[in-house]
Structures are given as structure tokens and as C-alpha cells.
Request: fold
Amino acid sequence: MRKRLIAGNWKMNMMMGEAGELARGVVDRAGGLAENIDIILAPPYTALGAVGDVLRETGIMLAAQNVFWEESGAFTGEISPGMLADAGCSWVIIGHSERRQILLETDEMVRMKIGASLGAGLKVIVCVGETLEERAEGRAIKTVDAQVVKALTGVDIDDPEDLVIAYEPIWAIGTGHHATPAEAEFVQSAIREIAGNILGDSAARIRIVYGGSVNEENIRDLLAEPDIDGALVGGASLRAESMASIIEAAGAK
Ligand code: PEP
Reply:
């Protein structure tokens, strides 16, 4: 039985004070469920300290939204996996579509970031997903297949629970149009099969979460599908009440 996981991606939002307050709101409302499911908050870099202070001893885990693949050196503006661990992170989100599209992050960069992060003891949420155009042309599975294969091939994964794949169809991110549970399950079961071709039996233990306009109304139906092990939540994670409701729905089963 895979442990469910709910992660909040705050993106480029929240000053330090606001971030601490939001984290406190989530801890107060849903912190008790951290024993049952993995709960992760991913504030911007500047608020990692403030949020980490609030999360200490709560069981809710801290994530960064990005990382670089080298450990140190002349890489102006970048942050290494070791630095994230030093800042209190146990998780990192890698390959979010906003980074792939806006910052031109490639599959090869994603693969290097995953390898470096796992090597430094961080756990990874790697994002994959197709554009609206790819979907309309019937290429959703092909796109996701290529992303998963390029992300995972050659990467050492000691514990399958350290790697989470977030299926985030780009057309569903921040749009209010989430994939139906059946649509998400169709792709996520394919992702498990693709991961199985690379990782063998341990793919059965990898968690695959859905992301894209998840909210307190749609989370239950999404979680009813066998290959949806949780959610990566953007907009709805910026309000303590909605994030807590999503966590409660995931912790209830
Ligand atoms: C995300 O950015 O990872 C995301 C899923 O955003 P939203 O929930 O706002 O669609």
C-alpha cells in the first residue's frame, strides 16, 4: 500500500511573514494527519527558513521548488542539493512545466537534477505532462513516456518511496480545468507501466500524484483512482483552509 502524498507548490508567492503564517495555518488545521500521509510544503527559496521554523517537529516536510545539479562552485544564482538539505528541505520539486517552458529546462537537466538530489539524500517530485496541443493531437502518452524515460534512465534510486512522479497536464495547471479522474488515471497507469520498464518491480512502490487545478471539491474523486496516490497542489495550497481540506480528504481513506 503506497502512502498518500499531498504537496503544496507555492510558486513565486509569499513574503517571509506571510509564508510563516500560511504554514502555521496548515499545521494548525491538518498537522495531525502527518502521521498518515506525507504532507509537503514548497515555499519559495527566500521563505524556506521561515516555513522550516514553523514545520519543525510537526511531521510536515519542507521542499524547494527547484535545485541545481552541482554541489558547489561557480554557478551564480544556483542552489545545490546539499544547500537545500542544509536549509531544512527533505524534498525538492524538479522539472515543473513552468520551468521547462519559461526557463527552458530540458529533460537532460531534469535527469541531472534528479540524480544529484537523490545522491544528496533529498527526495524528489518530478513533474511530467503534455501540452493542450499534444493532447489534441493524441500525443499525451508519447510525450509523458519520453519525459519519464529521459528523467529516470540511469538514475540510481535506492528507495522507490524517495521518488514521486507528478502527472501535471499543462492545460490543467492554474486554469481551473482539471483532468477528469478517468483521464488522469489513464495517463498515470501508463506512467507506472513506463516506470516499470525502467525500474522493474519497484515501480509498483513509486507514488504517482496528479497536479492541475486540484481543489477541495475534486480531490476525493481523483483519489478514488488506483494510480492516483496524491496531489501536487498549486493555487489551492495558498489558502490554509483549502490546503487543509485537501489533506483531510487524502488522510481520510
Ligand atoms: C502546479 O503548479 O503544480 C499546479 C498544479 O498548479 P494548480 O494547482 O494551480 O493548477
The mean pLDDT is 97. The chain is about 40% helix and 15% strand. The longest strand covers residues 123-128. The CA atoms of residues 6 and 231 lie 5 Å apart.
